[in-house]
Amino acid sequence: MVGVAVAATMLGWAGQAAAVPLEPGVINCGEHGPDVRFVVLFEPWTPAVDATAETSSKCGTTVAYHPQIGVGVVLSSDRRFPNLMGRDRVFSAKAAVGKSKRLSEPPAVSDRSRTDRTAEQSDMAMIRADQAHAVTLGSDSVVVGVLDSGIDATHPELSAAVDPARSAGCLTGKADPAPAAWRPTTSAHGTHVAGVIAAADDGHGVTGVAPGVRLASVKVVDDAGFVFPEAVVCGLMWAAANQFAVANHSYFVDPWLQTCDRDGERVVAESVRRAVDYATRRGVLSVAAASNENIDLARPRGQAVGANGERRTLDASCKVLPAGLRGVVAVSAVGPDQLKTGYSAYGLGVIDVTAPGGAGDECVLSTVPGGYGRLCGTSMAAPHVTGVVALLAGRHPGASPQSLTRRLTTQAVAVACPGDYDLDDAGGQDAYCSGYAPYNSFYGHGLVDALAAVTS
Predict the structure, then answer these.
(1) Quick check: 195 and 110 in contact, CB under 8 A?
(2) Residues in Cβ contact with 392 at an 8 Å cutoff, skipping those fewer than 6 apart
(3) Residue among 248, 250, 253 nearest 232 (CA)
(4) Which end is more exposed in the chain, N or C (fewer Cβ atoms within 10 Å of the end residue's Cβ)?
(5) Tens of pLDDT along 193-247?
């Protein structure tokens, strides 16, 4: 995953809005501060002219609008804007995180040469991707969207796979196809994920799960490391418009690790849910990382720190987005020993499949700008699954997301709950696995199988 939970500061919209009285009749808009970007909910299929007119009359400027799902992105410098539109319809994730940052050190570039390093890719052997390549490398008619921090399209392992015409930056909430908008800037994460999916099978460096497919770089992770809902909505709508077969989501949507379907959080939950549902209906299967907090996604409970430092009580409506949404393939991570890693989230009825995410000193080797590097996380597990889905899509052209999911889960190799999950030898259990061998909270339907995907 890109993100980890952080305590952040609010810019003061909630407290200041009440201090500015609402005038009857025509609203005199004022610049009370810097422009703030909001996600705004409308009824689906509200005409663009009506949505734009409403936001303009209430002191907002429309940046992007998706009438198919009734979600807009609006800028406003007027502190009254949330009250004018209705606080049950608007939310600013950017304002919620304030000036917080979530940047981590990039992976060390372990090798700038192009020597063959496939012998170091035990993760590919675990899911039998190396054997699958003897059958097929995947189809170049399959386009995989990497919704992430951008892909280095100059990397020799990825240059042939990246399709610039289908790539876009979504950080403002409006798709920008200019190469500068979708290339990586501060983060190697997206390039690493892309290599797991489709690094070239050329006898040099590493090889991805489906090296014959095409990649689209869709940038949704900003330079501070955040993934805001307007960027995710933009990315999913772009995926639908450009007929991606599968979209990889190795992140959670900010500003919370688990977003609840209540109060102001509902705007975030509803906007992303609408976008996922629309993309799915248009033939895009979403694969998402489960997150790295070793939490039970099926039983959200207790308290968590909110976006502005307050304590939030979790309930059954709280989900990691987009992994917790219906129709999304949620992926947990196993280490080299095929045991759920200590960081991976889990949950009966939430986790669909598992894949290698690396652990300890044995992280996943893949491409990074300038060479190769290692990263661990469910962020690395998800693209293994995305690669297998891409192989399936090539073998079964026109298959629906539901059909691809059924094939993926049916072909997965069942992994039973461990008899003991005491990772630190402290005498206790570090998590509890529920279910039975063919389907359980740690591994879902089991470990994905690339060879089965191309032979069954």
Answers:
(1) no
(2) 399, 404, 407, 408, 453
(3) 253
(4) C
(5) 999 999 999 999 999 999 999 999 999 999 999 999 999 999 999 999 999 999 9
Q: Which helix (H) or strand (E) holds 268?
A: helix 265-281
Question: CA torsion 181→185→190→196, rounded to 10°?
Answer: 120
What's the rounded Cα separation, in Å, for the pair 3 and 254? 8
Residue 373's H or E segment, with its range, is strand 371-375
How is residue 236 written in tokens? 């999913």
CA-based nearest residue to 114, from 362, 393, 371: 371
Delineate the domains of the chain, giving CATH numbers in brackets: 13-97 (3.30.70), 118-417+430-455 (3.40.50.200)
Residue showing tokens 């919620």: 96
Which tokens in the block code for residue 125?
A: 């052997």
332: how many CB neighbours lie within 10 A of its CB? 30
Q: Which residues lie closer than 8 Å to 1 by C-beta, 6 or more apart?
A: 250, 251, 252, 289, 291, 292, 377, 378, 379
pLDDT digit string, tens, across residues 96-139: 987 666 656 567 676 677 799 999 999 999 999 999 999 999 99
In order of 37, 166, 222, 260, 445, the CA distances from 182 in angstroms are 20, 10, 11, 30, 34
SS3 143: strand
Q: Between β-strands 61-66 and 439-440, what pairing exists: parallel, antiparallel or unpaired?
A: unpaired
The pTM score is 0.93
Helical spans, DSSP H, in 148-305? 179-182, 189-198, 229-241, 265-281
User: What's CA 90's distance to the chain center, in Å?
Assistant: 22
Sheet holding 71-76, edge to edge: 61-66, 71-76, 36-41, 90-91
Residue 444 neighbours by CB distance under 10 Å: 29
Residue 228 backbone zone (phi > 0: left; psi -120 to 50: alpha; other: beta)? beta
What letter represents residue 175's amino acid? A
Please name every residue paired with 413 in a beta bridge, in sequence order, or none if there are none: 447
SS3 450: helix
Q: Where are the alpha helices (DSSP H) in 28-107?
A: 48-57, 81-85, 93-97
In one-letter notation, the amino acid at residue 306 is G
Give helix then strand counts, H and E, for the chain.
13, 17
Residue in this structure with the two tokens 């489709």, named with its chain if needed:
198
Say how far apart CA 361 and CA 125 lie, in whole Å. 18
Judge residue 19's burial from the number of C-beta atoms within 10 Å of its C-beta, 0-12 exposed, 13-18 middle, 19 or more buried: exposed
* Cα(235)–Cα(217) distance, integer angstroms: 10
CA dihedral sign of residues 360, 418, 443, 198? positive
